[in-house]
Amino acid sequence: MQFHYRYYGESRVVDDSATTAISFAPDTLRKPVHFVADIGRHLPFREAISALHSVVVSDLRTRTRDTSEYQAWLRSQEGVLLAQFMARSGELRGRAATVKAELEAVQQQKQALLDPFWRARRQYFEHLYQSDRSLWIVLDPVITVHPDRVFFECFSRDESTYGSLSCSHEVFSRLGDFSCGTTNIDYSAALYDEFQKIRDYKTTRLAIEPGGFAVQTGDDPGFVEHKIDVPDSWVRGFLQVSAAMAQPGRRLSLHPMDLHNFCLLLRRRKEKVGPRSIRFVLEPGRPVKAVFEPWGTEVVCPRSSHDAAEPETIRIWGRRRLLTLERLIPLAERVEVHLLGTGLPSFWMVEGSDLRFTLGLSGWTANDWSRSGQFDLFGPRQHADAATREQVYATLARHWRMTPQQLGAEAGLDPVLAESCLLLFAEAGRVVYDLGDRVYRLRELSREPLPLDRLRFANEREAAASELVAGGAVSGLTLSDSNGGQVIAAEVKDRRSYRVRLVIDGDERLVEAECQCDDFIRHRLYRGPCAHMLAARLLAQRRTRLQKTVAEAANG
């Protein structure tokens, strides 16, 4: 997928003895967005924006060793190996020994000549990765101005980490004129060094410059155009984050010193064998206990709390990505962790000084967001026509932030139907879920959002589920109430018959599921519900909707 930006000038930081001016150049191809204000909390903002930079340049994928030198040597030895194989007699053995000695001498000379080249090439790529990170940045950060907050979002190059810095308007001492909306900002790795010059004793101004929108001619030499080809998996992963944040999970409230202890342990010790996980042990009425494997080191968080109603253990991997939060510990007033389950993503929110930093981690470092699970399929999936979807979007656009209950009350819609529409817009990149305030916010990820008609099936599983229902493959459907929710049981025939059982909570979210198919046996719910589960749920929704329609007709 290609993204096209046009900036008027470049983002820059102008620094002198008395002032620091941070000026971001917005994308002039999008709707005008501007924001000008003096920063009132200098050092917290500096540390938070620096942590966001760590996410932008993050790439923790395992880099394979360079074996080109060995492969070249192996190819050079083919003649020697063949000569040894063909040596069947004393004469041939003698000739092979002579040839081998000659080849060894030639190879030594060749190695001496090429060794500087191999060493220089290896050093060049190491320098490129460590020093010129701007070449590794995939997509410029997204900045959104709302009536109550300004927030920056970014996604790591390895597609495993999401970062969001949300600033309340209270962060700014002098708030000037602003225009709400979302835009991309011109960003380069050189800005990071300039951010470090922010000081408490100097006036610091943050400005998203509106000047480029007033230029009428596109051939002005001040315009800088960027065309970036982004992998589809990168975009899908970014869109999956909002759907994952909206899912129910375990909420842990930690003291900032607990996060410090986690990071200190990771700095002091280096794992050499697996498992490399954190095992959270949650017992009602007792503080959170974190066990770091493979060492078995227990870290008890005495001032922590959690919402687990019964004993539970949750394991997460990819824990070294938590070191991104180290710079935020001194300014943290509280730390909240949102755990979706074992092997599933986790969200770490650090709040303080009217700043909120959210770090979203996929199930483990090597498992990027686009493959870690189809979290949009866990939420409500009620059907809504185009008019209803546009009504939901227009209502949200008037207020910028709303809960499904607030939106449903104002628009006269069922809150579950409203949330289904909001999830569709999140899949299209037009809405983001704010985990801190627990509201949906308007945010256009791209200038041209994906058409909603293309979102009928978010992936091949939904398409397969629709085909199974249409073909009459779902039978023996039973519905029963349970703890304010619903239990769905059915038999789905797909080459063979599979028994399916789903548990839906009161908010119509999938919280538990079982199936006899190979996909579920291998991956459980780590990759989202299988097509058989979706088919059973789809037919259950249609039956419930039909029963409701019949009941309304009988009463009317």
Describe, in plain words, how this protein is organized in 3D.
The chain is built from 14 helices and 27 strands. 34% of the residues lie in helices and 29% in strands. The protein has a 9-stranded antiparallel β-sheet with strand order 9-5-6-7-20-19-18-12-16, sandwiched between helices. Strands 2-3-10-4-8 form a 5-stranded mixed β-sheet. Strand 24 (474-482) and strand 25 form a beta hairpin. With 556 residues, the chain is α+β, with helices and mostly antiparallel strands.
Short description, anyone?
Helix content is 34%, strand content 29%.
Overall SS class: alpha+beta
Helix content: 25-40%
Q: What does the main sheet amount to? A: 9 strands, antiparallel
SS field, number of helical segments: 14
Strand order of the largest sheet: 9-5-6-7-20-19-18-12-16
Distance between the termini: 51 Å
- Total DSSP E strands: 27
Poorly predicted runs: 132-138, 212-223
Radius of gyration: 28 Å
What share of the residues does DSSP label as strand, in percent? 25-35%
Mean pLDDT: 80
Coarse shape: globular
Keywords: Metal-binding, Zinc, Zinc-finger
Organism: Chitinimonas lacunae
Protein name: SWIM zinc finger family protein
Domain SWIM-type: 498-541
